[in-house]
Every structure is written in C-alpha cells, then in structure tokens.
Design brief:
mainly alpha; 3 domains; two-stranded antiparallel sheet; 10 helices; globular
C-alpha cells in the first residue's frame, strides 16, 4: 500500500498519460519515477490491478455489515417503529454500502453480495428470523420499500452517466468515459464494462441515447 503522496503521484501520472497538455502544469512528475503498487485506496475507494470492482464491492459490503452488527439491537427492537428503522437503514447502512457505487461494474456475484447485505438489514428491521423462510419481496414490503438495492444503484449510475455526458469535452470524467486503451487486450474472456451495465439499465427502462438532453 502506498502512502498518500505516492497515491497522488500515481493518479497524476495517469492524468498526464491521458492529457499531455497537463505536463506543463506538473513538470516534475513527468521526470520522476512512479512506483508500482498492486492496489491503493483513494478517497475511501479501493483501486487495484485486476481491472474489476470485486475488491471494492467486498470492502463496501464489509463496511455495511459492520454497521448492521453495531445496530443489531436497534434493528431488532420492538420499541422503534419501522419508519424510524428505515431512516436509520438509509442514513447509516445504505449510505455506507452505496459509497462509490456510481462507477461499479456489477457482475452477478457482486449483485448477490449486495442484495444479501440489504436483506440482512431488512430482515432484522422486520424482526424476521432466517427460519421463517420469507421471500425477499415480502421483506421489502413489510419495511416499506418498493425498489431493490440493485435498481437504486442502477438509477444512481444513470444519473452519473447523464451528468458526465453534459460536461464539457475537456473535463476529465468525460475524457475517461470516452478513453479507449491502446494496448492489446490479454487473452481470455472479456471483462464486463461499466458502459455495458449502463446500456442494459437504459434498455430495461426504455431509455434512448440523447433523451438526457431534454430536461422537460
């Protein structure tokens, strides 16, 4: 794990590779040696060389489950209304789970991990034992939720996608969105792209490219 200063140098070197014009802003970085690392954490998000979000999503799930354990007595309490428990869930558990989810590439395994964490919190809030064998849909209805946690993440990703598309062409998020690596792809199955998840979410909601331009 690199120190904060080394992490910043790595990120700035990546920006230099994408935007050569930035070299004049930070000339000393261009000539300095950037140390290689397998992974690092920046602004609470884990980055690694695997090219996936598996480690970051597992980290988020772990943080959310720690919150659930700490709030176990509150969630199981008979004296707290379900509406209040839902507010606690949204403020503490879901906010910890959703941090950085706008850029996640959700595989089926990661979806199951996230949904299982959601169901664990909702089951305790509704005072439902695992032995009761109640399906997830009924658990959400008892606590007053309509959308699944995956649908909410997809909605957040669509919101971020539209926000990036509205940016000026010179903004870094938009450049990163359109950036295509020049290196040859390694052999093996293609990894799921973030844009593929966006396209799928748009198709499920009958949205077309360009509709984001209409703010009415």
């Amino acid at each position: 794990m690199q120190k904060a200063s080394e992490t910043c140098r790595v990120i700035l070197q990546l920006l230099i590779n994408m935007l050569p014009s930035c070299i004049t802003l930070v000339p000393y970085i261009y000539y300095s040696e950037i140390e290689f690392c397998q992974e690092y954490k920046y602004l609470g998000i884990v980055f690694d060389t695997s090219g996936t979000d598996d480690k970051e999503i597992r980290s988020r799930v772990m943080q959310a489950r720690k919150c659930i354990v700490c709030l176990n007595g509150v969630l199981w309490s008979k004296d707290i209304r379900k509406e209040r428990k839902l507010n606690i869930y949204n403020a503490l558990i879901k906010s910890s789970l959703f941090y950085g989810s706008e850029i996640w590439r959700l595989t089926e395994n990661n979806k199951r991990r996230v949904e299982a964490t959601e169901m664990d919190a909702l089951r305790r809030s509704s005072r439902i034992s695992r032995k009761d064998r109640i399906i997830n849909v009924n658990k959400r209805q008892q606590i007053g939720l309509e959308e699944t946690v995956i649908k909410e993440i997809e909605q957040n990703q669509l919101t971020w996608y539209v926000h990036v598309l509205r940016m000026a062409e010179g903004r870094l998020p938009k450049i990163a969105l359109k950036w295509i690596p020049k290196q040859k792809r390694a052999r093996g199955r293609l990894k799921k792209k973030w844009v593929e998840g966006i396209k799928k979410a748009m198709n499920e909601r009958n949205l077309n490219e360009g509709q984001w331009e209409d703010r009415k």
